[in-house]
Amino acid sequence: MIRLKSFSYEQQTSSKKYWFTFVGNNIMDLSQSYKQRPEIDDHYDAICIGSGLGCLTTANLMAKRGKKVLVLEKHYTPGGFTHVFSRPEYEWDVGVHYVGEVLKPGTMMYNLFQHLSNGEMKWADMGDVYDRIVFGNTTYDFVKGVGNFKEKMKSYFPNEADGIDKYVKELFAVNSATRTYFAEKILPETIRFFTSGLLRKSYLKYSNRTTKEVIGQCTNDPKLLAVLTGQYGDYGLPPSKSSFVMHAAVAKHYMGNGGAYPVGGSINFFKTIAPEILNAGGKAITNADVINVLVKNGTAIGVKMKDGREILSDTVISGAGLDVTLNKLLPKEELSKFPLEELKSVPHSVGHVSLYIGIKETSESLNLPKANFWIYPDNYDHDENVENYLKDPENTEFPVVYISFPSAKDPEFETRFPGKSTIEIITLAPYEWFTQWENSRWKKRGQEYDDYKEKMSLKLLDKLYERLPQLKGKIDYYELSTPLSTKHFANYEHGELYGLDHIPERYRIKALRPKTPIKNFYLTGQDILSAGIGGAGMAGVLTASSVLNKNIIFDLMKQR
Fold this sequence. Notes:
Layout lengths: L14 H9 L1 H6 L1 E2 L9 E7 L3 H11 L5 E4 L11 E4 L2 E4 L5 E2 L7 H10 L5 E3 L3 E7 L2 E6 L2 H11 L4 H25 L3 H19 L3 H6 L5 H7 L15 H12 L3 E4 L5 H12 L3 E4 L3 E7 L2 E7 L4 E9 L3 H8 L10 H4 L8 E8 L3 H4 L5 E5 L5 H10 L9 E4 L1 H4 L3 H4 L4 E8 L18 H21 L7 E7 L1 H8 L30 E3 L8 H17 L3 H6 L3
Parallel strand pairs: 1-11, 2-3, 2-14, 3-11, 8-16, 14-20
Antiparallel strand pairs: 4-5, 6-10, 7-10, 8-9, 12-13, 13-14, 15-18, 15-19, 16-17, 17-18
Helix pairs in contact: 3-11, 3-20, 5-6, 6-7, 6-10
């Protein structure tokens, strides 16, 4: 095995230069740096704080309907968790590993991205198998097509056919209940007062129960439960902790048509969505640090920048996450309007480490798969494994290791990086493990921090070699990011990946909706809906619908 020093985001000073090198003028034309003093008008129809998918979707949908929107991003790279980063000869996504329901015309996700990108967003099919769930030496394939999925699971668990059918039925029941739950979030207050309970009732029937509780009513087989929840890393909570609606959203999201990857990489979210914002007279500005939302007489009127400049607007939309919005952006005197005790009762989601790997051979020559690996200990107990790992990470096996192969998924990767391939490995890592370094300077966190990351990197590489031994001795470059990296670049308070935890209590909070108690101030992003590309994108749809007082979901579903 080649032992390389693992580098963090913090140790690389030239990533911005390399990033622009591979993206080219296209991105530079779409976004400008606040440090370069771009021309910014004194007033906009709306200001979006953050450039993640929630804000990009909101801004695009408003721009398509004639609104001039300013998107302000604190990071030097636009796109939130859809952005990419590069090192010499390599490029990785940071948050987009696969997307469901975008391959079939007529589905909400397909229609949404066709609408946002004017048909420019292209997707590569990952094939029949999108996830491989691994326990010890046993592998279970998740295959696309509802019927195919059920048949495959029944081949693994022939005595659980009825339970598997019942489980899939429950997934679709949640999907039906989701529609009215979403609708309730954007209704005017007068209508919500009379209809809220009815519209939320069916959804809460499932959201109030954990994933383990619901699946436990379908099967008593602990191995089947473990396999069916083999994607729990997509929302960060094991079966006894997560709300079943979050599990159902992820499971159904991929089951129908499998997984897809954006052709050209995840940066194409920004590249295809942003032009409409600019065409309507808006702008996307990076290195733009908003420190306050300006509120006058109970109404949001704009934002204040770190340099003291005030930019006014008719509407302000925060996609910065609930914690940052409440704790940093809003005036303290306005917070009493929010149900703070209820909102703060939901903890932040789990932190993670991600190992980014580069190899000087092609995906084809290395026989890298398109399907993701989810690797678990062989005891088939996610809850016990997470609990043991959090207590004693040094002497406990990783509770989950997710391995993704972006260069194999993207048909254009070879064109951009000839003769190269990339891999990403992710596992759980609470922010609290890194608090001793949280006040250290970016790029200067010290040798102890680097040594800690190196040890974890090597353990993750060992898990990779167990599955793909042909990669031993071929790793050219690797770099580990931590929750401190996520906090620095994504501005999440605790380096969390999925915003608020997706526990049952979360879904009972009515305040997690676009409209807030402050007039003309709105929320968007995964915190008001759910994790992932689907959750953030649909949050943007709901926010734009609420701001414009227009049913954009109906418009999207009318598309052909």
